[in-house]
Amino acid sequence: MGKRSAVLGLSTAAALLLSACSNETAPTNEAASGEGEAGGGGKISITLMHRYQASNIGKSPEDTAVLDGVERFKKDFPDVEIVEEQLQNEDYAIKAQALAAADDMPDVFIVPGSWMTNFVDNEIVLQLNEELDKRPEWRDGYRAGTLDAGTREGKVFGIPIAAGPTHLIYYNADLFADIGYDQFPATWDEVMDAGRKLADKGVNLFSYGDKSKGYAMSSWISALTDRHTGPEWTASILSGGGAAFTDPGFVNAISIMSDLSKAGYLNKDMNSVDGDTMVSYYFEGRSAAFVSGIWSAMNVVNNAPEAVREATKVAVFPGVEDGKGDPLASSGGAGVYYSVHAGIAPGPKLDAIMTLLEYMTGSQSAKLMAEVGGFPAYDPGEFDTTKLHPVARAAYEASAAADATKIFDLWFDASIVEVINTEIQGVMSGSKTPAQLAEAAQQAYETFLAKP
Questions:
Q1: Any stretches that span the bilayer, and where are they (predicted)?
Q2: CB count in 10 Å sphere of residue 411
Q3: pTM of the entire structure?
Q4: What totals of helices (H) and strands (E) does the chain contain, helices first?
Q5: Residue 93 DSSP SS3
Q6: Which domains does the chain have, with CATH numbers?
Q7: How does pLDDT run across 332-388, given as a tens digit for each residue?
Q8: Among residues 23, 154, 178, 244, which one has the fewest Cβ atoms lying within 10 Å of its Cβ?
Q9: Chain Cα centroid distance, residue 13
């Protein structure tokens, strides 16, 4: 197999995870005016490919903050040319994998955390430790754990962008009040009770949309498993330390989802509708809640009918009896990273690239992202929360309430992710059992561990 051919085997589902003076470190005068591409005319040119789009400014916190950083950089350093390509998520996944396989990546590009090992092994991305060490204030400003999925054996290959949770419950407090709950149910027995009462009114407890095969793992399975097992189980899986997918905690997490589906508390077309349809069911009052990430807060604020928007509150899954995980935790952390082409040598161009990355992800970008409803990887410090709608503020506070647990699809090998993403659809449709999913996942895991 060719050195880079393995890159084409990456799961495109990971791409769905794919959102004047400043405090940023300025490049040296040499960097701003030095030679760019080989044979260039003395102007640095940086090629940038990502999935942030101008059409999403004001709608998506990530797009708003990152692209603001690009524009600030252009203004402050007009002698550095930015050749930018903005792509849709799925288009980005296809093009990035093709370019990586051809060894033709741009200077700066996005790498989902689940791609990072493959990109490191194939020498596509540049190790950034030395460059970050020159900028300790910026380097040390990222939230705990957000650099992890972009780091291999202590070497940093990616700069995180956002770190918001993939698991939050957005629920209509009015619908829950109608069945006797003044907040989201605090136990799983209460969740099932609420499901029964809502069903009697012709309303689904949750709307659910896993057409893309990835939603379940990202927003449900990662958080539910941690409620049962705590982070130690996940750490053991990742290290090959003896934990197994057939362990009771993982099976019980899948069983909660199976029970909700078998009881009829989710929409019947759960495996054939996407996230947009899932949320529209909530807006239409066909469900009392939906589970999604922090990015959905601004969708509610901007697009929900007024009555639904004003009734929406935010919660997380309840804890479980004898559970080892933090009942306030959400699956989260940085999902995508900016990386630099491995062929970029130290010097003026790399200096300028690092400054661009700081503009896009550092302090000013983080503050703006937080102020418009996002959860940046870089700690924004104090910011004006009065600018946030109560739904966005509640989502931010729930995100910050506890340390995030790992998002499985960003950490597990793509072969394992693909098996779970496929098998969970069978579980939710009733054609597979949680135990059968666990066995299939364990087989994929053992095959992965056996690789040289």
A1: none
A2: 21
A3: 0.82
A4: 21, 11
A5: helix
A6: 5-164+333-381 (3.40.190.10), 168-331+410-449 (3.40.190.10)
A7: 888 899 999 999 999 999 999 999 999 999 999 999 999 988 899 999 998 888 889
A8: 154
A9: 12
